[in-house]
Amino acid sequence: MSVNSTSAHTGAMTVDVEDYFQVAALAEKVRRADWDSYPCRVERNVDRILAMFAERRVRATFFTLGWIAERYPLLIRRIVGAGHELASHGYEHVKIHNQAPDAFRLDIRRTKAILEQISGQRVRGYRAASFSIDQRTLWAFDVLAEEGYDYSSSVYPIRHDHYGMPDASRFAFHPSDRHRIIEIPISTLRLFDRNLPSGGGGYFRLLPYGVSRWALRRIGEQDGQPTVFFFHPWEIDPEQPRIAGLSLRSRFRHYVHLGAMEERLRAVLRDFSWDRIDRLFLSKELGEECPATSPTASRSIA
Q1: What is the CATH number of the domain that holds 45?
Q2: Quick check: is 31 in a domain?
Q3: What span, in angstroms and rounded, lies between the C-alpha atoms of 32 and 179?
Q4: 3-state secondary structure (DSSP) of residue 178
Q5: What's phi and psi for 84, nearest 5 deg?
Q6: Which of 109, 152, 203, 221 sits in a 20 to 30 Å window from 118, CA-based?
Q7: Within-domain flag for 3
Q8: SS3 state at 173
C-alpha cells in the first residue's frame, strides 16, 4: 500500500552516522572486535556536516549507530539541539540477514534505548545496515513495529551485489496490513525499465554531479514524489586513514572521489530543498503536528 507524503518539492536529507572503519566494504580487513583501536573521525566530520546544514538552514534525519552514540553522547545532543531528527542505524552495523530475529530484536531495542536516553527524544525511525531488508528479511518489519518504530528506510529498490530489492515499491509504502509501520526507500529513477540509483552514497560520488542533479529533479517532476537522499560522514573526509590489503573493488567503492564529495554535497544542498523524514512522511500519514523546526531555505530546481 502506497503512502502519501506532504511535498513533492522537498526531499528527505539523511545521514548514516558511522565511522570509516565500520563500513561493510572494509569488513574483509577490519574486525568488529578491533574498532576501538582505530582513530575515530566521526565527531569532527558530523560537526562539519552540521555546519553545512546550518548554512543552508537544512534539517535532516541522522541514522546513528548505538556504538557511536555511547562514545559520543555530546555529539548526539548537538545533532538534536540543531533541530535534526535522530533515528536508529542499529548498534554496530550488522546486516539483518546475519542476525536471527531474536538477536535483531535485542539490537534495535538496545539502540533505541541508548539514543532516547542520550537525546531525550523518542526515536521513531530505523535504517538497516547496508539496506539489508530484502526478500530474506521481511520479518524485520514486524519486529520493528513491535519494538515501537514508526518507520524504516531500509530498502534500496535496485540490483546490487551486496543489497537491494529491485521489485519493491520505489516510494513510501506500508509493508504489512498488520501494523502502521512505513517503509521509505532510497530514491531511484525509473529509466529503460530499470531502477537507477539516484539517492546518494557511492553512486553520488562516482557520477558527475550534473547527472545526479538531473536524476533528482526528474524524480520530482516525473513521479511527483519527494526524493530520499543519504550519505555518510566519512565520505567528506578524504584524509581518513587508508585500510591496507583491501580488494580492488572495495578500495574503489570506498575511496572513489572522496575529495569531491564535500563540494557536491554543498551543491545538492544549494540546488534542492531538504527536510527531516518525520516532517515529510509521518505527520500527515499519522495525523500529527509537525515537529517544531524551522523550514528549509534551500530551493528546488524549477
Answers
A1: 3.20.20.370
A2: yes
A3: 34
A4: coil
A5: -90, 160
A6: 152
A7: no
A8: strand
- Residue with cell string 565527531: 43
Contact between 12 and 185 (Cβ < 8 Å):
no
Q: What is the mean pLDDT of residues 239-259?
A: 93
Please name the amino acid found at residue 227. Answer: T
- Inter-residue contact 255 to 242 (CB < 8 Å): yes
Strands (E) located in the chain: 10-17, 61-64, 85-88, 125-126, 151-152, 182-183, 188-191, 194-197, 228-231, 273-275
- Tally Cβ neighbours within 10 Å of residue 92: 17
Q: Which residues constitute the domain of residue 275?
A: 10-285
Residue type present at position 112:
K
Rounded Cα–Cα distance for residues 152 and 181 (Å): 7
- Is 299 a member of any domain? no
Q: 269-291, pLDDT tens digit by residue?
A: 999 999 999 999 996 655 454 44
In a domain, 297, yes or no: no
Residue type, 203: Y
Mean pLDDT on 242-248: 92
Q: pTM for this structure?
A: 0.91
Please give the tally of structural domains in the chain.
Answer: 1
What is residue 219's DSSP assignment?
Answer: I
